[in-house]
Design goal:
The structure holds 3 protein chains of 3 kinds.
Chain A: E1 5-14, E2 17-27, E3 32-37, H1 43-50, E4 57-62, E5 65-66, H2 72-78, E6 80-83, H3 95-102, H4 113-119, H5 136-148, E7 154-158, H6 166-181, E8 185-189, H7 193-199, E9 202-207, E10 210-215, H8 222-230
Parallel strand pairs in A: 3-8, 3-9, 6-7, 7-8
Antiparallel strand pairs in A: 1-2, 1-4, 4-5, 9-10
Helix pairs in contact in A: 3-5
Chain B: H1 3-28, H2 31-56, H3 65-81, H4 86-108, H5 113-132, E1 144-145, H6 154-181, H7 183-193, H8 195-201, H9 204-231, E2 233-234, H10 236-239, H11 243-255, H12 261-276, H13 281-298, H14 302-311
Chain C: H1 2-31, H2 38-56, H3 64-82, H4 92-113, E1 129-133, E2 136-139, H5 140-162, H6 164-174, H7 176-181, H8 186-211, H9 219-233, H10 240-258, H11 263-277
Antiparallel strand pairs in C: 1-2
Classes of the chains: A alpha/beta, B mainly alpha, C mainly alpha.
The complex binds adenosine-5'-triphosphate and magnesium ion.
Chain lengths: ~230, ~325, ~290
């Protein structure tokens, strides 16, 4: 069986600065990959190269098909959705409209506006509000709902717990569990290593643009992880 | 001696030879040559001034004609109404233009990007219409003549005007190089790299921009006074014509924005095209429009910018040379 | 009574000005670039209508059937082939490109049609009027222009709120990078938006040509009114153009009442006042983007 996503020696640059040095990674359908690493390790950069937001070197495959160099707006229709770092909602659109715009490509599947509101019932009464009038947690929910609307095979989520109260984080991770249960393959970036390990089927630790450690959460010792994280 | 120093010496030598040639023209050149050079130089000066504002300080004005017109009318008032010697009145016209520009900076500096550009144009149009409206003093739409120039013999008049135009062109160039090398240049560079960061350094950003804006307006005023000193008649339509900013923009874009050398090259190209297509004004303007579009699409750094990025040449020592970049944080639209 | 008549005329004039501003508000609101050739495109539209009416023998209003789709295509091509090449580099490229285009259009029109002033004709429509009082009547055509703007605004409002493409336009205006993650190609959106703007410009050109005569170099004067409308109404605000147009129109007719030389001047002064007091206009809609 081929992997749903596989990366082979992926590199990325910001001008002259090389942010990723040959990342090789793979995810089978239904898996949840956690990317961990210190600030500036290249997690966001890696997510952006996968979703086509940033040009990449090396090769990226989705369902065994080479998708390197395909721009972001076409990858969405091919099954990749992204919850960007910092949520990036459309400020002049309402909650409802933000959600709807996620379904722009009309990819068929189980997710619909109703299903998203079932997942996040607290959004129902805020449907008509402008996205920026919401609390951070609610905004994060809209961002996830917006990504789900395209019925992705691969859902990328960058720091969905950032700046949120623990209760809200729990709530959001409950939703993540439901999304996983529905069979969606997930790659998520998490600052909180414990949280990352608890949801992931496979963990990759990044250090200065390279994979410093990978494995199943159960197989990784605390010591090995901290070393890989800080680059000791 | 480094390559850069060599280049600067070449630049200095070129500048000196050109200067000597220019100053000596009245002794050997024909009246026609002299008039052509005058026309060439005031477009060059206006281009250089606009380049200074837009290319270095990120202020994209399409209202510089306001200060050309104010300078021209200031000359009328000073020489014709107050009886000053018109030649001595010239520097004063710059001061007057800058004084008029000051209150507009209060309005403009609250605006960014597109708003700044459009508002500067509206201001220029407002001034034109105000002069045009039946103000008898300034002659309304028919304008006024500079009859007081009649006191000088024609050859003398033309020679002095010529030397003044050469002088203002050089002055604007020197002033610009000097400002770019001073702390103002440093401030401009910080502004281009990061408006917010430069703002953090102090309130200096707006002060720097204001100094550049007022200097540019004052210089444009002097150029305006000189243009109409040779024309001998000032009408609002001519004095506040959008061409006083449109042609300089073409020149800067063709030559290379954000460089000192670029506008000089642009002005030469502009002048040749204009002379060549003189009998077909519509065709020559059409050509300018197409060239500007083509330049923007295929060589946005202009002729000099393209040469420079290929061979890394710099004839004028700006030292803190700034790359010709277009999106500066301070000018990005909202 | 004079003041009342002047206001009515100002409001009617405002209808035409709102039409001037509408295309520009669309371009600025969605692409956030400024189109210095906007006024010249309007004049170009008037000339094209002239050509269509002459060649096909259609009345001016009917020429829109040809003009709207043609201008839509032209706008789309212009955006996709020219303007999209310099996206993301600030406003300078858009200013230069459209500035060049403006000069090109003016001189191409001059070379093709000469400098003579032209008019479009719609027969009786241009002379019909509704008498309000014994000595004051309002023209049917100006009233029609106002109605056209209002209908356009309602239609656009519906389009932006209730269609997927309309939402995509607004989202692209907010953030052209994130919108790509939703499967929307901002370049295509921009092309469609410019097409839409040009289609509206076609309508504007026809109504302008019916109201006044026109010549190749009239563009900049239209452009400055269009800018004033969107500055007063709030740059990028579609709905703001109506109020912007009306304020500009009334300011001009009021100035005119004082002294005919103050007609345009008072419009400029009103604009500068708005800029001084509320730089973002009366109904700012576009969200600040950094
Ligand atoms: N737009 C950019 N331009 C230039 N350099 C960038 C840019 N974005 C990121 N970088 C650099 O690339 C490297 C990787 O950044 P990235 O944002 O991918 O890290 P990260 O692991 O997501 O960090 P964080 O945990 O802080 O989100 C960093 O050194 C960063 O400074
Ligand atoms: Mg990150």
């Amino acid at each position: 069986m081929t992997d749903l996503l596989s990366l082979d020696g992926v590199t990325a640059h910001y001008g002259l600065f090389q942010a990723l040095h040959g990342i090789t990674l793979s995810a089978r359908a239904g898996e949840t990959i956690a990317l961990v690493g210190a600030n500036g390790a290249g997690k966001t950069t890696l997510m952006r190269t996968i979703c086509g937001d940033l040009p990449a070197g090396g090769r990226i495959f989705l369902h065994g098909k080479d998708i390197t160099g395909i721009p972001a707006h076409r990858l969405n229709a091919m099954g990749i959705a992204m919850v960007p770092e910092g949520r990036k909602l459309f400020p002049s659109l309402t909650v409802d409209e933000n959600t709807q715009i996620g379904g722009y490509t009309k990819r068929p599947g189980a997710w619909s506006r109703e299903a998203v509101y079932d997942l996040f019932p607290e959004l129902i009464k805020r449907r008509a509000n402008k996205a920026l009038d919401l609390s951070g947690g609610e905004q994060q929910m809209v961002a996830i709902g917006r990504a789900l609307m395209s019925n992705p095979d691969l859902l990328l989520m960058d720091e969905i717990s950032l700046g949120l109260a623990p209760i809200v984080v729990n709530q959001i991770y409950e939703a993540v569990d439901k999304i996983r249960a529905a069979g969606t393959t997930i790659v998520l970036v998490e600052q909180d290593i414990g949280r990352g390990l608890s949801v992931a089927t496979h963990v990759y630790c990044l250090l200065e643009g390279r994979v410093s450690l990978e494995g199943k959460p159960a197989d990784l010792s605390q010591k090995a992880l901290t070393d890989a994280y800080f680059g000791v | 001696m480094t390559a850069l120093q060599t280049q600067h010496r070449i630049g200095a030598a070129l500048a000196l030879v050109t200067l000597a040639a220019l100053i000596s023209v009245p002794y050997w050149g024909s009246a026609y040559l002299q008039r052509s050079i005058v026309e060439f130089l005031y477009f060059l000066a206006l281009a250089q001034i606009w380049n200074f504002m837009a290319g270095y300080a990120g202020m994209f004005s399409i209202g510089q004609q306001a200060w050309v017109g104010v300078g021209a009318y200031a000359l009328i008032v000073l020489a014709q109404d107050l009886g000053l010697n018109p030649f001595w009145a010239v520097p004063l016209t710059g001061v007057i233009a800058a004084v008029f520009a000051l209150p507009t900076s209060w309005l403009l500096f609250r605006l960014k990007g597109a708003y700044f550009a459009v508002a500067s144009w509206v201001i220029a149009e407002t001034i034109r219409l105000a002069v045009n409206a039946d103000i008898n003093w300034l002659g309304g739409g028919r304008g006024r003549s500079l009859t007081t120039m009649g006191q000088f013999e024609r050859g003398f008049r033309e020679d002095v005007t010529y030397l003044l135009v050469v002088g203002i062109t050089i002055l604007s160039l020197v002033l610009m190089v000097w400002m770019l090398r001073s702390r103002i240049g440093l401030g401009l560079m910080a502004m281009r790299d990061n408006a917010a960061g430069a703002g953090g350094v102090g309130v200096a950003v707006n002060r720097t921009r204001r100094i550049v804006y007022l200097a540019a307006s004052g210089l444009a005023g002097v150029v305006g006074a000189l243009i109409f000193m040779s024309a001998l008649n000032v009408r609002p339509d001519a004095a506040f014509s959008i061409n006083w900013v449109a042609y300089p923009i073409f020149i800067v874009i063709i030559g290379g924005i954000g460089t000192i050398e670029g506008p000089i090259i642009g002005a030469i190209v502009f002048y040749i095209l204009r002379e060549y297509l003189d009998d077909f004004e519509a065709w020559s303007l059409l050509a300018f429009g197409l060239i500007a579009i083509a330049m923007m699409l295929f060589a946005p750094k202009g002729i000099w910018g393209s040469i420079q990025s290929r061979w890394d040449i710099e004839l004028f020592p700006i030292r803190r040379r700034l790359p010709a970049r277009f999106s500066t944080p301070s000018t990005q639209e909202t | 009574m004079d003041i009342f008549y002047a206001s009515v005329n100002g409001v009617l004039l405002g209808g035409l000005y709102a039409l001037y501003g509408l295309g520009l508000a669309l371009t600025f609101g969605i692409m956030r670039t400024i189109n210095l050739a906007h006024g010249d495109m309007i004049v170009f539209g008037s000339f094209m209508s002239l050509v269509v009416t002459r060649v096909l023998g259609l009345p001016a209003l009917a020429s829109l059937v040809v003009l709207i789709p043609a201008m839509f295509l032209l706008g789309r091509l212009f955006q996709e082939r020219v303007m999209n090449r310099s996206l993301g580099e600030g406003i300078m490229p858009s200013i230069i490109l459209t500035f060049g285009l403006s000069v090109v259009i003016q001189n191409a029109l001059l070379l093709t049609f000469s400098a003579d002033r032209q008019t479009l004709s719609a027969g009786q429509l241009q002379t019909m009027s509704l008498p309000l009082t014994e000595d004051f009547a309002i023209g049917v055509l100006p009233l029609m222009t106002l109605c056209v703007v209002i209908v356009l605004l309602i239609a656009l409002n519906w389009f932006f709120r209730h269609t997927m493409l309309g939402r995509a336009f607004r989202a692209t205006s907010d953030d052209p990078e994130v919108v790509a993650l939703m499967g929307i190609d901002p370049r295509r959106t921009y092309g469609l938006a410019m097409g839409l703007a040009f289609a509206i410009i076609a309508i504007t050109g026809v109504f302008m040509g019916l109201r006044t005569n026109f010549a190749p170099f009239d563009g900049p004067a239209r452009l400055i009114f269009a800018f004033e409308v969107i500055i007063i109404g709030g740059m990028g605000s579609i709905q703001g153009v109506l109020i912007g147009g009306v304020i500009l129109g009334v300011a001009q007719t009021m100035g005119n009442l004082v002294n005919p030389a103050f007609f345009q001047l008072s419009g400029h002064v009103a604009t500068l006042l708005v800029l001084a007091i509320r730089p973002s206009g009366l109904f700012p809609e576009t969200i600040e983007r950094d």
